[in-house]
Amino acid sequence: MKKRVLQGMRPTGRLHLGNYLGTAKGMVALQEDPEYETFYMVADLHGMTTPFDPKKIGIEAREVIIDYLSVGLDPEKSALFLQSDLADLHVQLAYYFSTVVTIARMQHLPTFKEKVKQHPENVTMALLNYPILMASDILIYKASVVPVGIDQEPHMEVTREIAKKMNSLYDLDFPEPKSLDTKGRYIPSLTGEGKMSKSVQGSFINLTDDSETIKERLSKVPTDSGKGEKIPEEGGVFSLLTLVELFQGPEKRKEYENGYQGTGIRYQELKNELAETIFKELEPIQKKRLELEKDKSYIEKVLKEGAEKARAVAAATVAEVREKMGLLQKEKI
Ligand code: TRP
């Protein structure tokens, strides 16, 4: 039996290089691995737990799909769908789950507390229910594998607790899903501090950047004299060497490191060459994206087929839970 994977992506704007190397490539690898069956969902309902623009949220959800299609997700191999297209099932199951979760448990989650700090004016029931809806997203497909970062671990724990409680109270067979480290690489920021992040200006390269823009961004990475006994393990030079390794290979990095400890590195040349190599990898993704942007009806078709695939599984789970919880099955009313 294939292991089922469910991953949810919040619609938080376009992908940058860090997301691409850290997340998207891992998702494509899972899709290609015959051991797994992949369900990839845009968590647009979760996008409503913090302030959002009703004029944009629908478009942004589709942007996520376009981004992931352009980096290689294949609707023939993965179910790609919007959470809101299955709101009737996901929200319904979340409600059943909410009968076994206490308010105190939700209020004490570090993820909840952090959001309360960020948006003190927006401490809503949707926010409190966030982890329960996420548990529903996962368990509705009886997924056993969830590729998420460490920041989502509190939600994964809640998910396992809910699975255990539902199983023991109602004789169900939910798996206790595990998070999976997709071997996504840590991509350091171009500022030399922390990781590449959309919320830090000057830290990232966009997947849509042309070679001039990439050159400009790299030109701002702080460097040093280019020489020294010890290869830097942090800061701008470390970021550059990491990117060299990722895009030009470990040997190239070694060459530069030898240079650093020898005659010195000329950063201008390193940066220009690196920018060219990064652009070469991004160019086909950008071409694919342009094609996809032109064909709105294709995107809608992908979403419709993805939702149908997902619905077949999700509807069966909800029917099973309703029956086990004592809501007698009857003809459609
Ligand atoms: N909470 C996740 C995040 O912010 C997004 C998400 C929603 C999710 N539902 C999910 C992730 C289900 C994995 C599985 O990243």
UniProtKB/TrEMBL annotation:
EC number: 6.1.1.2
Protein keywords: Aminoacyl-tRNA synthetase, ATP-binding, Ligase, Nucleotide-binding, Protein biosynthesis
A molecular function (GO) term: tryptophan-tRNA ligase activity
Reaction equation(s) it catalyzes: tRNA(Trp) + L-tryptophan + ATP = L-tryptophyl-tRNA(Trp) + AMP + diphosphate + H(+)
BP term (GO), one: tryptophanyl-tRNA aminoacylation
Pfam family name, one: tRNA-synt_1b
Coiled-coil residue windows: none
GO CC entries: cytosol
Family indicated by similarity: Belongs to the class-I aminoacyl-tRNA synthetase family.
Name of this protein: Tryptophan--tRNA ligase
